[in-house]
Each structure stands twice: as C-alpha cells, then as structure tokens.
Amino acid sequence: MKIISKVILIAIVFFSSAICAQDEKFRGFEKKHYIGTQAFMVLTPLLDPSPEYFQLNYGYRYTSRDELSVELITWRTSGPIGRPFGPDFEDEASDFPGDIKSTGIGLAYKRFLWKGLYGQIHSTAFKQTYRNPAEETIQTGFMLFNTLRLGYHFKFFKNRLFVAPSIAVTHWPILTNMPEAFQREEDKWANYFVGEPGLHIGFTF
Fold first, then answer.
1. Phi and psi for 160 in degrees, rounded to 5?
2. Residue 68: what pLDDT?
3. What is the mean pLDDT of residues 109-122?
4. What pLDDT does 199 receive?
5. Among 173, 175, 129, 149, residue whose Cα is nearest residue 71
6. What does residue 92 show for φ and ψ, rounded to 5 degrees?
7. Over 70: is that where the pLDDT of 200 sits?
8. Is-contact 104 126, C-beta < 8 A?
9. In angstroms, what is the C-alpha Rg of the chain?
10. CB-based contacts of 73, cutoff 8 Å, min separation 6
C-alpha cells in the first residue's frame, strides 16, 4: 500500500498541473452516466502481499453540478487502517494475526464547486471477514466506512474519459465483532485517516 500511495500522490501532482488547460465553461460530465474505478486497482496483482482491491462504480449526473453513484468495493487489510503516514504506516509490528477481507456496497454524492473542483461524500457498508494466517475465517463483523473527498475532475477525448485525483479524510464510526487479538491492535489507533489519496478514472456514456 505504500507503493500505491506514492503512485497516487505523483499522479495528483501531475494532473493538478493541467488545471489551467481545463474548459472555462466546465459543467461536470457532458453525459448522464459513467462507469469507473480507482486507478491503483490495476497494481494490486503486482504487490506482495496483494491488497486484493477491487472497485466498480456506476454514477448518474442529474444536474450539471450534482451526481450520485453506487460503489462496489472489496479489499484485504493486514493491519489497522488508522495508522497514519510515517514510520507507523503499515508497520508489520502492529499487523493483525491474520487479515480482514472487506466486501461492501456504498453510496456517494458529488458536487462540482468550481470548474472541475469537486467535493464528494461516500458512505459504505462493509461485511468484515476476519481470517487467520491460513486465510481461514475466524468470525465476521460489520464496518460503516465514511469518506469526505476533495478533488479535481479532468476530461479527455471529447469528454468520454475522465481522471479525478483527490485527497480524502476517512472515518469508520462502526466496527463490530473483531477477534480479541485484532481488537488489541485496532484500539492503538484512531478510527479515522487524514490524507488518503485517490485517483478515480472512468468512462461516460
């Protein structure tokens, strides 16, 4: 995940440099619908251990500034996701004795604020599958995962392709039924994360 974060941060800097080239009459998507995902999903097979990340979004633009989307997401985590950037980020010493496979569905609302600048709020309900080192299920739980995102939306190829780098604050107010050994590590960290990078890509139609 450190590699993913660095790739996304570099992409954010790159795409931010193109803001001045955006259409002065930016009106969000020119089409009503889109299919998208997070760009770093393509890197997951290359990482060891793999985060097993997959995301698929369907969005609908119902005004020139507003859109709603449905998100299907799954990922694997080996330690508390509240560990901040720095020496503690993904420190193996605070990993779980196993991992968590999260599978969920979420809703998101996006509002264009100025040209391609947007704010977005997501709320996702996850089934949490707690597994031992052999990837055998120990027990299951639930997580409510919320995200507040600020980003910029770039359009390419006659508005058919978009790239949207962003930065976010995440918060999970509900996290249930963790095994005791997992909970001990989870309790050492906050239930929020500041500065999560994102790189959303997709096609409109």
1. -80, -30
2. 98
3. 96
4. 96
5. 149
6. -60, -25
7. yes
8. yes
9. 18
10. 54, 55, 102, 103, 104, 105, 106, 124, 126
Give the DSSP letter string of 20-33.
GGS-TT--S-SSSE
Q: What residue type is assigned to position 103 of the chain? A: T
Domain 2-204, CATH: 2.40.160
Task: Name the token pair of 161.
Answer: 């392709």
Burial bucket for residue 181 (CB in 10 Å: 0-12, 13-18, 19+): middle
Mean pLDDT, residues 147-174 taken together: 95
Type of residue at 39: A
Q: Which of 11-20, 60-69, 86-95 is predicted with the least confidence, judged by mean pLDDT?
A: 11-20
Q: Which amino acid is at 77?
A: T
- Residue type at 144 in one-letter notation: L
| Predicted TM-score (pTM) of this structure | 0.85
Which structure tokens are listed for 95? 């990993």
Tokens coding 22: 């955006």
Q: Is the pLDDT of residue 130 over 50?
A: yes
Q: How many residues would you count in the chain?
A: 205
Contacts of 149 (CB under 8 A, 6+ apart): 119, 120, 121, 122, 166, 167, 168, 198
Average pLDDT on 176-205 reads: 97
Q: What is the mean pLDDT of the chain?
A: 89
The DSSP element (H or E) to which 180 belongs, if any, is helix 180-186
Spell 130-152 as b/e; 16+ CB within 10 A means b: bbeeeeeeeeebebbbbbebebb
The two tokens of residue 200 are: 């959303």
